[in-house]
Amino acid sequence: MRALSCLFLMAGVGLTLLSSPLLGANGASRVAQQRVLEVTAGKLPSARGIKIKRLSLVRWRNGGFEPVPFQIDELDEHDLVWFDKSEHERQGDPGVFDARDELMALFRDAGEKAPDGEDPGQGRVLAELEVLNPAGDSLYFYLVRDHEPRSPVHYVEHNVESGVTRTPWYRLEVDPENELNWRHLGYRGYEGDGSIIDTLKMRMSAGVLSRFTRMTLTNRNLDPRLLGLKTGPIRSVMHLETRVVISGIPVMTMQVQALRYPAHYEAHTYAEIPFMYRATLKEPRVSVSMDGHEQYGARVKTARAGDLVGRVDGRMDNQERKLVERGLSTDEDWILFDSGKNFSLLTLLEVPKPLSGIPLGLIYQDNEDKEVKPERYPGQLPNLGYQIRGWPPDDKMRFAVKLLFDQSFHGLPPQRYASLRTDQGDWVRIHPRAPE
């Protein structure tokens, strides 16, 4: 049933959902349709302490309430999705909506305001969730208790055994034995040939005792082990563990959660770094980047680019070199990539406030001959991403890389587009219902 629900979206009903009339047709509204609504239990006091299985989400449309796709995930002490095998402590009580548990839905599925006094017939409304579209108009979800109907739609279909993910927007294929080894990325309406990317690249390097004796680990060495999996209508979550060993020294154990959403992908990394290894390893570097597959003609902008534009042609020019020199920071971290072939990419690197200010470099390589393994095809066209330089101030390393897919930037300025895709801001207002 779940596999059919995603195909059903793409084949027929998906055409209606992908152009929701309530959200309008201008560029800003089209961008907003792909946002994911994320509300924690702390912002929903009328629902706190209720069993998760008793909660559901509905909207008002065509004179009645109807269920919409939603998901609730319980989080652990590090704000990752909780899995028993991770050995992290769960926040709150098991199976209960509390602590920092997350309620998720797609912005595009919001409905009209329900008339005063209306109820779903079965169960009762706990809260009205008002969401604002870019034009300032209000749309609504309703959190209900003991309302049995559920939407059959699952936006994300993820087969871990084959490594294939399908959503109404994209298709991703990875090595089922190693989540870091991407094999194919396709996007709805993409006009190029073959995969959009060559592969995803994660690299760790450090000098052992001296900065001159460097060791480097890549996807091939960072062999993650699957500890947990959860698939739902809004996202799929894999919890992976990899042990980092440099020159025979077991440096740390990294916990990585790979999250697949309907229109984007996230990788959240958490690790604790023992003091003795902080002293032993010199000038550490952690980098995450995407190697494009022959994206000639693409353009790249960054949060610090100003008027500079990177144009992919297989050779680094002065503008591209200046782009790299300007770099990025934890406060200015977005990168925009436009293929010019009905695919665009917005990337972000997020770190918690205690790590704000850690040195951050821009990876940008435009070279049709350069080899940077692992890769399947020659050249970096382009290789684009982030490099974290040095250890964080304390013994914990935490960062998230987000890859948000689209057809284009819909005529919006780069900063405006980035804000619309990512900023939760104050566009969600919660109106709790008084208890009975």
CATH topology of the largest domain: Beta-galactosidase, Chain A, domain 5
Number of helices: 5
Shape verdict: globular
Task: Note the gap between the termini.
Answer: 37 Å
How much β-strand is present in the residues? 35-45%
pLDDT below 50 for ≥5 consecutive residues: which ranges? 7-19
> Can you tell me the CATH class of the largest domain?
Mainly Beta
User: How much helix, percentage-wise, in residues?
Assistant: 10-25%
Radius of gyration: 22 Å
User: Major sheet, described briefly?
Assistant: 9 strands, antiparallel
Lateral arrangement of strands in the main beta sheet: 14-15-16-17-25-22-21-19-20
The figure for the number of domains is: 2
Q: Tell me the number of strands.
A: 26
CATH architecture of the largest domain, by name, is Distorted Sandwich
Sheet/helix structural class = mainly beta
Arithmetic mean of pLDDT = 88
Quickly describe the structure.
This protein is mainly β.
Relevant terms:
436 residues; mainly beta; 2 domains; 5-stranded antiparallel beta sheet; 5 helices; 26 strands
Walk me through this protein's architecture.
The chain is mostly beta strands. It folds into 2 domains: 2-155 and 425-432, no CATH class; 163-422, Beta-galactosidase, Chain A, domain 5. The chain is 11% helix and 42% strand. The strands form 5 sheets. Strands 14-15-16-17-25-22-21-19-20 form a 9-stranded antiparallel sheet. A 5-stranded antiparallel sheet has the order 3-2-7-6-26, with no helix packed on it. A hairpin with a 2-residue loop joins strand 2 and strand 3 (64-67). The model is unreliable at 7-19 (pLDDT under 50).
